[in-house]
Design a protein that fits this description.
The protein is mainly alpha-helical. It has five helices and no strands.
Length: 94
């Protein structure tokens, strides 16, 4: 349940960027993790921090992908770096 909440939170944060948010969330809730992964991967690769965090969760818990802690750390790190850059930019412009 905790994983679903975490993934749902990520998807909710990413909703404006994800045109297929409802489909991806519904797929995840139905246990169709491969579909959720396929929908999130292009956004993660394009630098969307929320999508990167979602992939990290999937790799950490093996949802739709083989469990791979190294891959999870990679996506968590990318998400954190991008999130820090966004926060820094907002602070400098605010």
């Amino acid at each position: 349940m905790r994983r679903l909440f975490a993934f749902a939170t990520v998807l909710l944060l990413a909703a404006p960027a994800w045109a297929d948010f409802d489909d991806g969330m519904a797929a995840y809730e139905r246990g169709e993790y491969e579909t959720a992964f396929e929908e999130g991967l292009p956004f993660a690769e394009q630098g969307d921090a929320e999508a990167q965090f979602g992939l990290a969760l999937m790799y950490e818990f093996g949802d739709g992908v083989p469990q791979d802690y190294a891959e999870a750390v990679k996506w968590y790190s990318l998400s954190a770096v991008l999130g820090a850059e966004i926060a820094s930019s907002e602070l400098n412009n605010g």
